[in-house]
Write a structure and sequence with these properties.
713 residues, 36 helices
């Protein structure tokens, strides 16, 4: 009977396959119009290698995952990241279609649907030659795959394009397991080769696929009758793709360090100041939190950074409860290891093994927890739930077995109404939550401003919300009232971020911007930038100094450029800007002292020499000395177009118009569209009485001036 069932699949199995392929598109249809969000910039839009299309594929395999975004290897998280395969798919999409988020979202849904189908087929295959086949299949595989499919904790993976690494790791891991099982059952080498290749692809998608080196042999162990020698043989074979990926990873990352001891930033290592006891108490708490979310996913968020979850102690009741539950699960998995076949035992073992590498126990993952990290382990719990619902019917009906496959749903309706009700409530609740959660992932604005209501005590979330509101305040065509409202909200979030994490450089940088644009307080802005200490914060110091100078606030500009010089003494731009402040404030001699001091540090610097000439010319009307400095500037850099233009102006003031025209024309070689140069040449020709030539340059000056106005508009 079992063989007949195997040769001619029941109509139910066909219907189940159709449902698993179609349902994901119904659940996630409202993501197809979504934009890019969260880390999509890192892996797609601003990833240099991805944006090169097919020509960037080699670099995606040869470099760490973040290199294409940062331009170099960044040790942001312990061990780095090597997940080239999903980025290769993004590169190919870009090659043929450009950046089209709708297409990327569609592909995510399609891969998710295929993964659910593979889960169903795999579980069916596992039961095929076991004593469970006639009673539990295909209903149990379908229920497990269905519960996994509709679960809202997966929205982070499916609705966020970057989550494709998780989907591909799961998909190829399922294919690897299914192929290896067929190799075991049929003994054909082609299935073993397909399994090893699939596992290789899974590991190149994401590191948690390495757990299948153990999961695949366990699947065979629980549902077939191999010897322990065969069990060890299977592990040995599966180590081949693992070794190859580790070699590629080693070459790309220049090492395999995974301890996390070198990562001292709280946002990349949440346990940096926790100590041993609080670290592991918090880890145990998060493990319990995962189980709670898998059963009742009422409140979801993409951010579990410090301190959305606070550091715990071993005396915390939830820590104790979580520890007891996991201890029971471990003991149960060990107990059932020798009592095969065993569905719940395998489900628990699958969950524990796949969760182990993302639980912060063996390897730090950079955050306390994340919903995407249980994308793979959740299958074990969903299988357990499905088994429990069906087992409940056996208990209620007081029978030791389930009905045949064809009678399963009739049996559920007649004999297992409680189980059917539980199943329907779970499916309806999970599906509703999934559809309801999806819109949050539309873009960064919807994501950050929604999840800040959940992750109120996360420094990262508060900074993200502050940054988003600040960006919204800088949009054109918003009223002054809207601008102030955005900035006021941003200020509250940014101050909360630095209250949680006083050393949060990115938050201090955001706060500096807000202090300037909301409170117009240069002193507070500068102190915030100083605490940020980032390259962008120092650039912002220059920017607000330049803004202050345009407004005539020379005292404020002096503070900005003075602090910049104190923080970046080896950057000449601070001296140049400060000299400009004194020049415009009518303090030419002070400007000269600043520049002469700068020359002792930056000898023969063409820009400083040019600025000295400008100060002597504009501030002191000493055009002969100005010309000497312009000459020195051109000796230091013959391509300094500014010095050429200034030389032309100085000669004009001295009445040497032909020399003036000569230098203006030299400058034109570098600044071809500068209408001011054409106007200066026209004026010089007018002074020489050459009206015809002067008018030619007037026409050109007007032409380029119109062009500039058009570009600015």
């Amino acid at each position: 009977m079992r063989e007949a069932g195997h040769l001619r699949p029941a109509w139910a199995a066909i219907a189940y396959r159709a449902i698993l392929l179609i349902l994901p598109f119904l659940l996630y249809a409202n993501t197809l119009h979504h934009q890019y969000a969260l880390d999509d910039d890192i892996v797609i839009r601003k990833n240099e290698f991805v944006q090169q299309g097919a020509s960037g594929i080699y670099d995606l395999f040869a470099q760490e995952t973040f290199t294409g975004f940062f331009g170099k290897k960044k040790d942001l998280v312990a061990g780095g990241r090597y997940r080239p395969l999903s980025l290769v798919t993004f590169a190919l999409e870009h090659e043929f279609f450009g950046d089209r988020p709708a297409l990327s979202h569609f592909i995510n849904i399609l891969l998710y649907a295929i993964t659910a189908l593979l889960i169903f087929i795999l579980l069916n295959q596992l039961l095929l030659k076991s004593e469970y086949w006639s009673s539990w299949a295909p209903a149990l595989p379908f229920l497990a795959a269905l519960l996994w499919l509709v679960h809202p904790i997966h929205t982070e993976v499916v609705a966020n394009i970057k989550g494709r690494d998780e989907i591909m790791a799961m998909l190829f891991s399922m294919l690897a397991t299914l192929s290896y099982l067929r190799f075991y059952d049929a003994g054909k080498t082609k299935w073993m080769l397909l399994s090893l290749f699939s596992l290789l692809l899974a590991m190149l998608s994401k590191e948690n696929a390495f757990t299948f080196v153990l999961v695949i042999p366990l699947a065979i162990w629980y549902f077939r009758k191999p010897s322990f020698k065969t069990f060890l043989r299977d592990i040995s074979l599966l180590l081949i793709p693992a070794a190859l990926v580790l070699l590629l990873r080693y070459q790309a990352l220049h090492g395999l360090e995974l301890s996390g001891e070198s990562v001292n930033e709280l946002m990349n290592n949440p346990f940096v100041d926790a100590g041993f006891a609080r670290k592991y108490a918090t880890i145990i708490f998060t493990l319990g939190k995962y189980l709670q979310l898998l059963l009742l996913p009422l409140t979801l968020t993409h951010d579990y950074y410090p301190y959305h979850i606070s550091l715990k102690t071993f005396s915390h009741p939830y820590v104790i409860a979580s520890a007891l539950i996991y201890l029971a699960m471990i003991l149960y998995a060990l107990f059932t290891f020798l009592r095969k076949p065993n569905i719940p035992g395998f489900a628990v073992a699958f969950y524990l093994i796949t969760l182990s590498v993302v639980a912060n126990i063996f390897f730090p993952v950079g955050t306390f927890m994340a919903e995407r990290l249980v994308f793979m382990p959740s299958l074990g719990i969903m299988l357990l739930f499905a088994w429990g619902i069906m087992k409940l019917g056996m208990v209620i009906s007081k029978t030791g077995h389930l009905p045949g496959r064809e009678a399963f749903w009739k049996w559920m309706l007649e004999k297992n109404k409680v189980g059917l009700l539980i199943l329907l409530v779970m499916l309806a609740g999970y599906s509703f939550k999934t559809v309801d959660r999806n819109p949050v992932w539309k873009n960064n604005e919807t994501l950050f401003l929604s999840d800040i209501r959940i992750s109120k005590n996360s420094a990262k979330m508060n900074n993200a919300a502050a940054g988003m509101l600040y960006d919204m305040s800088q949009r054109e065509n918003i009223s002054p009232e809207q601008k102030r409202s955005y900035l006021a909200r941003a200020k509250a979030y940014a101050e909360k971020a630095v209250e949680i994490h006083p050393g949060y450089h990115a938050a201090w940088q955001t706060l500096g911007n807000i202090y300037y644009f909301l409170d117009h307080d240069i002193d507070k802005a500068l102190r915030a930038y100083e605490k940020a200490g980032t390259a962008e914060a120092y650039r912002n110091m220059l920017a607000i100094g330049q803004r202050a100078m345009k407004k005539g606030d020379y005292a404020g500009a002096e503070k900005c450029f003075g602090m910049y010089i104190s923080k970046k003494p080896n950057h000449s731009i601070g001296y140049l800007e400060l000299a400009d402040v004194y020049l415009k404030a009518g303090e030419a001699k002070t400007a000269i002292r600043v520049l002469e001091d700068a020359l002792t540090k930056f000898k023969n610097n063409s820009e400083i020499l040019n600025k000295l000439g400008l100060v002597y010319g504009q501030g002191l009307e000493d055009f002969e000395r100005a010309i000497r400095y312009f000459e020195l500037a051109l000796e230091a850099n013959p391509d300094n177009a500014e010095a050429m233009e200034n030389m032309g102006v100085a000669y004009g003031f001295l009445g040497e118009n032909e020399k003036s025209i000569g230098f203006f024309k030299q400058a034109l070689k570098y600044k071809k569209n500068d209408y001011r140069l054409y106007q200066n040449i026209a004026n010089a020709y007018f002074r020489l009485g050459e009206v015809k030539k002067a008018k030619e340059y007037v026409i050109k000056a007007e032409q380029y001036a119109r062009q500039k106005n058009t570009e600015e508009q």
